[in-house]
Write a structure and sequence with these properties.
The protein has a 9-stranded mixed beta sheet, with helices on both faces. Strands 17-16-15-18-19-20 form a 6-stranded parallel beta sheet. Strands 10-12-11 form a 3-stranded antiparallel beta sheet. The chain has 18 helices and 20 strands. By secondary structure, it is of the alpha/beta class. Helix 1 crosses helix 18 (463-475) and helix 6 (142-149) packs across helix 7 (203-210). It has helices at residues 18-32, 45-50, 89-92, 108-124, 137-140, 142-149, 203-210, 219-224, 235-240, 275-288, 310-323, 339-348, 361-370, 386-392, 403-408, 429-443, 446-457, 463-475; strands at residues 2-6, 36-42, 58-64, 67-76, 82-87, 99-100, 103-104, 132-136, 161-166, 174-175, 196-197, 200-202, 213-216, 245-247, 297-304, 327-334, 353-357, 373-376, 396-400, 422-424. Strand 6 and strand 7 (103-104) form a beta hairpin. Bound molecules: adenosine-5'-diphosphate (ADP) and alpha-D-glucopyranose.
Length: 485
């Protein structure tokens, strides 16, 4: 089986969050399971630089609005996976992926419509064509719609099936009706049954309607998004296609996230020898300017976005600081309005709160290794990777019981010593603070804490299981609809 994955991120060429991690690891795991995967991402400035500016294999043209625009197909060798960058400097030779300084690029509707058209033009030139086109998130979601609504343009791809994966339903790629013309679709698709959404265009909806198969990144999130509470306005569309929707939990790339081998951390450790974890904590305290002591160290590494519950965190921190001796280390980047309250807390409690604003991959590893407790008070969480990294690094997760967080963390039971972390149900300060206190109380019992840490470290969330489930999903796709010209 041959699969092409279309996405807007793939680590290390382009990453702003978990999507990039998934596109780095899932293709390799599928390769190992006998599925040949090629990943295709836009030829961003950062991606071309990371790849060492390889030469283009060929130049093609793809339609965008009323013109044709050139795209260079740039295969990247020696990438561990087969990677193709679609280079169009007019759209992608910029500092950011989606925007600069907190604001989205004004032409994102055009940029990602072009990305999808360009990908299909490239695939037309591939022989044999892939069996499956697997698109991720809204940036790639137009491709199944282009394919099925204009089959006459893509006769070579008539046998190809499509899967769309939702990594986050909150990001839909919604644009005004005035952007519709970029798509070159017949106006009869600008209706609620297809791409129209509250008067505008919805790119993700295009994928949800036209892909042969749908997946999302945890079983619980697959159920949640079919409800109005988590459906972001698309729950009806998802309910209508529920038979085609499945939740496949993400995995962890244990080659990258492993405290026994991690090159970023001060000392290595493993379930049989935890001494290195203490050294990692001391090194982290020194690095972020916290006093060297045994007080519990609570950590957050997160995009600063509404989804992540940063407001709940900032509201709960003073309460935790008042009622315990815990310290905090926060690494985050994103929405500037969340920076201010975090910085204010760091200024008010300089010996107990360290805040680093920015995106720092290596520091993220050192925080996972050095902290005692990891906090994920997300409003919603499709899967979440950081709680999985935390488990492997012996850093106990405290999470809001939603989506993938609920699927992957098991509440610790002091009576049986089973469980891997602590969960809270109500998205409210008292419930969150109470869960933090359950963690802190357990830490005061060294025997229970050690068991809890080891329970987490020995969990296996490797990609092999997920890869098997994706392979099954590909095999069970219905045949493509007949082409009516
Ligand atoms: P999401 O994709 O919603 O942001 P995930 O938990 O799935 O959430 O993945 C987040 C990924 O991004 C993890 O690899 C995490 O370490 C990383 N990350 C998020 N924010 C930062 C940051 N400020 N610096 C470094 N890494 C970050
Ligand atoms: C999204 C989600 C996150 C998930 C990641 C990878 O960014 O917010 O929960 O882990 O995608 O699937």
């Amino acid at each position: 089986m041959r699969v092409v994955m279309l996405a807007s991120e793939a680590h290390p060429w382009a990453k702003t969050g978990g999507l990039g991690d998934v596109l780095a690891a899932l293709p390799r795991a599928l390769d190992a399971a006998g599925v040949t995967v090629t990943v295709c991402v836009p030829g961003y400035r950062t991606a071309l630089r990371t790849a060492g500016h390889p030469p283009a294999a060929r130049a093609l043209h793809a339609p965008i609005g009323s013109r044709m625009e050139r795209v260079d197909v740039v295969p990247v060798q020696d990438a561990g996976v087969r990677l193709v960058l679609l280079r169009a400097d007019r759209y992608f030779d910029r500092d950011g992926l989606y925007g600069d300084g907190g604001a989205d690029y004004a032409d994102n509707a055009e940029r990602f419509a072009f990305f999808c058209r360009a990908a299909l033009e490239w695939l037309r030139t591939e022989w044999p064509p892939p069996d499956v086109l697997h698109v991720h998130d809204w940036q790639a979601a137009l491709a199944p719609a282009f394919l099925r609504t204009s089959p006459a343009l893509y006769p070579e791809l008539a046998g190809m099936r499509t899967v769309a994966t939702i990594h986050n339903l909150a990001y839909q790629g919604r644009f005004g009706w005035d952007q519709w013309h970029w798509l070159n679709l017949d106006p009869r698709f600008f209706v609620p049954d297809f791409l129209e959404f509250w008067g505008g265009v919805n790119y993700l909806k295009a994928g949800l309607v036209f892909a042969d198969g749908l997946t999302t990144v945890s079983p619980r999130y697959a159920r949640e998004i079919q409800t109005p509470e988590f459906g972001e306005g698309l729950d009806g569309v998802l309910r209508a296609r529920h038979e085609r929707l499945r939740g496949i939990l993400n995995g962890v790339d244990y080659a990258v996230w492993n405290p026994a081998t991690d090159p970023h951390i001060a000392a290595h450790f493993n379930p049989l020898d935890l001494a290195g974890k203490g050294r990692c904590k001391a090194a982290l305290q020194a690095e972020v300017g916290l006093p060297a002591n045994d007080a519990p160290l609570l950590a957050i590494v997160s995009r600063l976005a509404e989804q992540k519950g940063v407001d709940l965190l900032a509201a709960a921190m003073p309460e935790v600081l008042r009622t315990s001796d815990a310290a905090f280390v926060v690494l985050g980047s994103g929405d500037e309005r969340y920076e201010q309250p975090l910085r204010a807390l760091a200024a008010a409690f300089p010996t107990r709160v360290a805040v680093r604003i920015g995106f720092d991959e290596a520091l993220a590893h050192r925080i996972e290794a050095g902290a005692d407790v990891f906090l994920m008070p997300s409003r919603f969480e499709p899967c979440g990777l950081n709680q999985l990294y935390s488990l492997r690094y012996g850093t106990v997760p405290v999470v809001h019981a939603v989506g993938g967080l609920d699927d992957t963390v098991v509440e610790f039971d002091p009576a049986t010593l089973a469980g891997t972390g602590f969960k809270f149900l109500a998205f409210a300060v008292p419930a969150f603070v109470e869960a933090v206190h359950r963690a802190l109380a357990t830490r005061r019992n060294p025997t229970a804490w050690r068991r809890l840490v080891l329970n987490g470290m020995t969990q296996d969330f490797s990609w092999e299981r997920a890869a098997r489930e994706y392979a099954t999903c590909y095999r069970e796709l219905p045949p493509p609809p007949p082409v009516v010209l």
